[in-house]
Automatic annotation (TrEMBL):
It comes from Streptomyces djakartensis. Residues 33-49 have a biased composition (Basic and acidic residues). CDD domains: SDR_c1. PANTHER family: NADPH-DEPENDENT ALDEHYDE REDUCTASE 1, CHLOROPLASTIC, NADPH-DEPENDENT ALDEHYDE REDUCTASE-LIKE PROTEIN, CHLOROPLASTIC-RELATED. Belongs to the short-chain dehydrogenases/reductases (SDR) family. Keywords: Oxidoreductase. The keyword Oxidoreductase applies. Coiled coil: none annotated. Pfam families: adh_short_C2 (PF13561). This is Oxidoreductase.
Amino acid sequence: MTGQQHPGEQHPTPEFPSQDQPHPGWTGPMDPPPDHGEESYRGSGRLDGRKAVITGGDSGIGRAVALAFAREGADVLFTHLDDEKDDAAETARLVEEAGRRAVPVSCDVREEENCRALIDRAVAEFGRIDVLVNNAAYQMSQPDGIEAISTEQFDRVMRTNLYGMFWLCKLALPHIPEGGSIINSTSVQAYKPSPHLLDYATTKGAIVTFTQGLAQMVIDKGVRVNAVAPGPVWTPLIPATMPDTKKFGQQAPIGRPAQPAEMAPAYVFLASQDASYITAEIVNATGGTPLP
């Protein structure tokens, strides 16, 4: 649906069918299917000619951002894991359908050399990087407490959510021209951590601090750094990492999870020249959960 409507009734509300997927999860089996803006997002040239890099662009928020960026006029290089090739192909189709270049790249951001190769590829393809979106993330619910979080899991969460972001920012900055921007994906978990997502929430809090610090560090280069803090969003990560999806998102005051399409406009705004006076900012998109 389009047009003015009650926000709590705009998209499906819990209860959802019980569903479970192995990690990393895929879009196709999800019920209800996620909305990435395929039928609703209308571009207006706000990113004409821009070159964007998006990590985790195969599905969920990353796909919605790739679609929106393309319809706003940007070419998009995005990452996916090897197991996500089918989802990545669909994202590429949507970008190309918008008349823009799509460059899907299999990349695990947990390794510095992979991040270096990714930035080298982006520069080879585009010549520069106007927008870097650090969106790739890993979580795994552990309702049995800190004892259940293995060192292997903790390391994977840290390296995916923090190390990858750090390396990509460091490596991309020499190729981001004046007026460019970096947008990081944090979360409501940064401010209101769920005990069963302790390690994930820890990284999201660190992303807030990193974003605010880096923004001050690089503004003299003419580069803005901001973040988006989503609340619960209906993406493949949910059935792949949560023990029960039936009531997912019900805790938000709006009464439902966001669809990925509802996150994309925040990223478009922060990437555009409309946000020229906005840096070191966290855009909260939590469905009504108050944050500091």
